[in-house]
Write a structure and sequence with these properties.
The complex is a heterotrimer of chains A (about 450), B (about 325) and C (about 325). Chain A is of the alpha+beta class. Chain A contains 13 helices and 14 strands. By secondary structure, chain C is mainly α. Chain C contains 14 helices and two strands; from the N terminus they run αααααααββααααααα. Classes of the chains: A alpha+beta (about 450), B alpha/beta (about 325), C mainly alpha (about 325). Chains in contact: A-B, A-C, B-C. Chain B: This is Amino acid/amide ABC transporter ATP-binding protein 1 (HAAT family).
Chain lengths: ~450, ~325, ~325
């Protein structure tokens, strides 16, 4: 799914809930003060009536055409300057009200809140004992004949999984580092940005093909991780600096690196080659861009290889042992320093790859792109249980899906809020995360 | 850390006897219990750390809680003091039910504890550490704290009391030093003195001798015995059998989370369940070496064990001789 | 290159409302982090709540300036409760992550278009000065000398800000020398030990969070007092900058946070004036003027790292009294 699509689907539901509220409120108002000015049709002829008020974000829409029909009776009515209309109807229970969407302003449509109705601009009106009924429509910005809620939902989930896998690559690294050294590394965000910036430099500045640029960027990231460990973290460990101090050092490093990126690349957004690849329809209205598909496959392959490494290889097992209990691992002859070095290299490589994928997903490369997802990565890691690599992956996918689907229900500029609130709530009830173990006390 | 090396010969003090009612069995009722615990259970994952059906701690006596590593002594301590929550069970202190009560409320009732790993507040001075221990301080309320005239008088009283205690614990020379600069043993002393600042009725000491320089051991023992003389009740966890035998009026033995035996120290030492419990925890040690039948290298744990076994043997032999 | 102008700007920044705002927030962090050992990474949210609470209650509800400040303070107290009750039982690094997340939630809520009517979303808020200025006792005119020449409103904001800062510093000093402060410092050292002495650790931490939060909210208000409330200010970096100022001065001191903030802003202003000037006269040929504005933020990061590694007690801190929680 490319950006244009992405924005469109977001826009459709952005204000849905709010509009519904406003429409309901204004309906209540219009009942209280009976519209004398309303464009009224056949009101004097019949005792029963259907009334309504067409508004967009509390602004009345004038001249919108509606058709009321039922039991062989059919009449057309247009809204007045206040967006109101009223139609007298003969005896009878049910009438159908159709709003002519072609009379709405451009880019405005009747929105279907339930997701089950294919024609939200047609509604059934029941006349109650009071002889009058209110009929309002949800009006909002969006495409006419919108995609069904179900399709949107599926599309969001697919996107969420993609986003989650990308987060997972970053989260596994943060979690490994935390597990083996106890450091909550805020500079991990900049390791993500580093990968993307390196890919940009190689592919755009040097003009090398993307399929060389990206692996090279990942390699450079790995080297970056090694450098950071050898040049900064290892000496600090040897010095016996406490974990809170280390964390603040990582914050300082994060600031320094982030502004260094800005220093060299400026404040704008730059694109990697292939970021505008065409959409490939999958089923229903769900489609994915080529790069997103490749991105998902790459994430999955890398994660599977990583899992194999962690579970099967000697150094992977040593890593888990160190995560479990560093002093015990050291006592049983594991070279903790070597494990930590490998962990930094791996974490940085995966973060760099995550950066490249994030650059395609956003899309675009910016100096603070890593910092934008750092909290989501922390949320994912905490959700899964600090220090457990597989927990971090599970947490990432949950966070990814949550962020993507939440904008179906809440304004899209609040979509990160949902994930962060979930993080806080999880910590309330299960501080050890979903897969973490409760620490033994005493 | 063994008190065998302690230089001064202990001054024998009268043991408190007649604490129990009826036959001595695990969970026996006491004449005047200060703590009564029922059905306390705590599990970590699948592991049951503590599973105590019934236990009572006698008032105004020194009770030792012993048992091999992993027997659940410290966990029971944490549960009784509100630092951990049991899965099930209820217990009372001085008639107050403590189940579900937070650690600070437990402490306010007069049941204070120390920790296995000493918790001296390193960046507070020794005197500040002591003053922190005092209860019901007016100035500990944020608003009243801002008006010194409200708490100055009380502060002076607390300081006076703190200095008396520091003198007694021979820490008065250090009163303006950061607690972080004290030695391990001095920190233990400070922690105990600080606990006494709250004028408790029950003092719970978690391994008071661990890491204490032998030169300080005797004074620590005397301090503990003094607590009883001053009307307090003491419950302590200890590995050192000498210390237990020397100062405890009553011993409770735990193994695998349960109370397996209790009684006056001399009787408990010869209890088969106790011997089993201790030997059971040392399965990695060749028993032949321990009992002296085989020559071999012993690690420190095994040396401790060998000492204990010898002690138990001697006790049993002594009892047999006296015909009891 | 106008050296006098550069020095004048730098001198002026020493008592700028932004500096005073930082100093107040840093005092709040000294309460949280330096004295209590709480790793609050959400100070930006306290500042945002103060500033927005002040501006919204004046603009939307027509409160007088002091009413707006009370709303800002009240908001920060409520936020401290909401934040503290669930999180103060968590371990240090968890607390850092939760507070930073909560701060981001607050920022996004102020930024969203959903509440545009009240918050101005991305445009922020401005034009709330009338009430505060109407209480200005200083007659119209320009006063001062050298770099410190301001009009009546400029002085009114600064004098008010310094008075608030002095009051906050006094309160912090008064509570920290009391037995209350002793308990707080004890909690920083080992909360279990303090709990074992019968102190309600949770309640003390919450009080500390609230008191420091109020300082932060007042900092946010003073910061926004002369100009506008801009949502771009209350990002996580703000918290990090305030930490840098705090650690510069000394985390467990009363005057450290104030001096740290003054130095922080002095150096920032000096660099932001000096570096472009140097670029313009060709001293730094490898740099553009835009890049020279970025350099000072790189230096903040580097300074933060070096401080924590080599002088964690700050300028005013006692060498023996390292203030980092274990």
């Amino acid at each position: 799914m490319n950006t244009a699509d992405y924005r469109r689907t977001r826009r459709k539901n952005r204000r849905g809930v709010l509009v519904a509220l406003i429409v309901a409120l204004s309906a209540a108002f219009s009942l209280m003060a009976m519209p004398a000015m309303a464009d009224e049709v056949n009101v004097d002829e019949y005792d029963n009536s259907i009334i309504g008020n067409v508004k967009l974000n509390s602004e009345p829409l004038e001249g919108v055409l509606l058709t009321v029909s039922g039991g062989g009776y059919e009449v057309e009515v247009a809204t007045d300057a206040d967006g109101r209309w009223k139609v007298g109807v003969p005896d009878g229970d049910e009438f159908s009200v159709t709003l002519d969407e072609s009379t709405l302003p451009d880019g405005i449509a009747v929105i279907d809140e339930t997701g089950e109705d294919d024609t939200p601009n047609v509604k059934e009106a029941m006349i109650g004992p009071s002889g009058s009924t209110v009929m309002n429509f949800f009006i909002g910005r969006g495409e006419r004949n919108v995609t069904s809620f179900f399709d949107q939902f599926v599309e969001r989930i697919v996107n969420g999984v993609n986003f989650g896998l990308m987060l997972g690559l970053a989260a596994i690294g943060i979690s490994l580092v935390y597990g083996t050294t106890g450091l909550s590394n805020f500079a991990h965000a900049e390791m993500v940005t580093f990968g993307a910036v390196m890919a940009l430099i190689v592919s755009v500045d040097l003009g090398w093909p993307v399929w060389i640029a990206i692996p090279l960027a990942v390699l450079l990231s790995a080297g970056f991780g090694w450098t950071l460990d050898a040049g900064l973290w290892k000496p600090l460990r040897k010095k016996g600096v406490g974990i809170v101090q280390l964390m603040i050092v990582s914050i300082g490093l994060s600031l320094a690196l982030r502004y260094t990126f800005q220093y060299f690349r400026g404040g704008g957004t730059e694109q990697l080659p292939g970021s505008d690849s065409p959409d490939i329809p999958l089923f229903g209205s769900v489609s994915l861009s080529q790069t997103n598909m490749i991105s998902m496959v790459v994430s999955i392959v890398v994660i599977v290889i990583f899992a194999w490494w962690l579970v099967k290889t000697k150094i992977g097992k040593a890593t888990r042992a160190v995560s479990d209990n560093p002093s015990l691992a050291a006592a049983s002859g594991i070279d903790v320093d070597q494990v930590v070095r490998v962990v930094w290299i791996l974490a940085a490589a995966m973060a760099g790859l995550a950066g490249v994928l994030w650059a395609y997903f956003r899309p675009g490369i910016r100096w603070d792109m890593g910092a934008q997802i750092l909290l989501l990565v922390f949320a994912a890691v905490t959700l899964g249980g600090l220090g457990t690599a597989f927990g971090a992956l599970v947490g990432s996918i949950i966070v990814g899906v949550l962020v993507e689907t939440s904008s179906l229900f809440i304004p899209s500029d609040l979509k990160y809020v949902g994930a962060l609130v979930v993080l806080i709530v999880i910590l309330l009830f299960r501080p050890q995360g979903i897969l973490g173990r409760k620490e033994r006390i005493g | 850390m063994s008190s065998k090396d302690s230089p001064a010969a202990p001054v024998e003090r009268e043991k408190t006897t007649g604490l129990h009612k009826g036959d001595i069995v695990p969970g026996v009722a006491k004449v005047d219990p200060i703590i009564i615990a029922d059905g306390i259970r705590r599990t970590f994952g699948g592991l049951t750390a503590v599973n105590v059906d019934h236990v009572e701690i006698p008032r105004n006596a020194i009770t030792a809680l012993i048992g091999p590593n992993g027997a659940g002594k410290t966990t029971l301590f944490n549960l009784l003091t509100g630092f951990d929550k049991p899965d099930a069970g209820k217990w009372t202190f001085d008639g107050h039910s403590l189940a579900g009560m937070g650690a600070h409320k437990v402490a306010r009732l007069g049941q204070v504890r120390t920790f296995q790993l000493t918790k001296a507040l390193g960046l507070l001075t020794v005197l500040e550490n002591m003053k922190l221990g005092a209860k019901d301080q007016i100035g500990e309320n944020i608003f009243r704290g801002m008006i010194p005239s409200l708490w100055r008088k009380q502060e002076a009283e607390i300081e006076e009391r703190a200095i008396v205690l520091l003198k007694k614990f021979k820490l008065d020379a250090k009163s303006s030093d950061f607690a972080a600069s004290l030695s391990g043993g001095q920190r233990k002393l400070l922690e105990m003195a600080r606990a006494l600042m709250s004028q408790p009725t029950l003092v719970m000491l978690d391994e008071p001798m661990a890491g204490v320089n032998p030169a300080l051991t005797q004074s620590l023992l005397d301090h503990i015995l003094d607590l009883k003389d001053e009307g307090m009740t003491v419950l302590f966890v200890e590995h050192d059998m000498h210390m237990v035998r020397h100062i405890a009026d009553w011993v409770i033995v735990m193994a695998e989370g349960q109370v397996v035996a209790e009684g006056p120290p001399d009787q408990v030492m010869k209890n088969q369940a106790v011997i089993d419990a201790y030997l059971g925890s040392h399965q990695d040690v060749d028993l032949g070496v321990v009992t002296g039948r085989i020559e071999g290298e012993l690690n420190t744990a095994a040396i401790d064990l060998a000492e204990e076994v010898k002690e138990l043997d001697a006790n049993i032999a002594k009892r047999k001789e006296t015909g009891k | 290159m106008d050296i006098l102008q550069i020095l004048s700007n730098t001198g002026s920044s020493l008592i700028a409302p932004a500096t005073i705002g930082y100093a107040l927030a840093a005092l709040g962090l000294a309460m949280h982090f330096g004295f209590t050992g709480l790793l609050n990474m959400g100070m930006a949210a306290f500042m945002a709540i103060g500033a927005y609470g002040y501006a919204i209650s004046i603009l939307t509800f027509g409160f007088p300036w002091w009413g707006g400040m009370l709303v800002g303070i009240g908001g920060s107290l409520v936020f401290a409760l909401i934040l503290g009750i669930p999180t103060l039982r968590l371990r240090g690094d968890y607390l850092a992550i939760v507070t930073i997340a909560a701060a981001e939630v607050v920022r996004l809520l102020f930024l969203t278009t959903t509440f545009d009517k009240y918050t101005g979303s991305a445009d922020g808020l401005s034009g709330y000065h009338a009430s505060f200025r109407s209480f200005n006792p200083i007659p119209d005119g320009t006063y001062g000398f050298g770099p410190w020449e301001y009009n009546a409103n400029g002085w009114w904001v600064r004098i008010f800000g310094i008075a608030v800062l002095a009051l906050a510093a006094f309160i912090l000093w008064a509570v920290m020398r009391s037995p209350w402060g002793r308990v707080i410092k004890g909690i920083r050292e080992d909360e279990d030990a303090v709990r074992a002495l019968g102190k309600n650790v949770f309640s003390y931490k919450l009080q500390s969070l609230m008191l420091g939060g109020v300082f932060g909210a007042m900092g946010g208000i003073i910061y926004a007092l002369p100009a506008s409330v801009n949502p771009g200010v209350y990002v996580t970096s703000l918290t990090f900058f305030v930490y840098t100022a705090l650690l510069l001065g000394g985390a467990a001191t009363i005057f450290g946070p104030i001096i740290g903030s003054v130095i922080f802003w002095g150096v920032q202003t000096l660099l932001s004036n000096l570096l472009p000037a140097l670029v313009n006269i060709g001293v730094l040929p490898f740099m553009t003027t835009t890049q020279s504005q970025t350099v000072r933020f790189i230096l903040v990061g580097v300074a933060l790292m070096l401080l924590v590694i080599y002088r964690p007690q700050g300028i005013l801190g006692n060498k023996k009294e390292l203030t980092f929680v274990k």
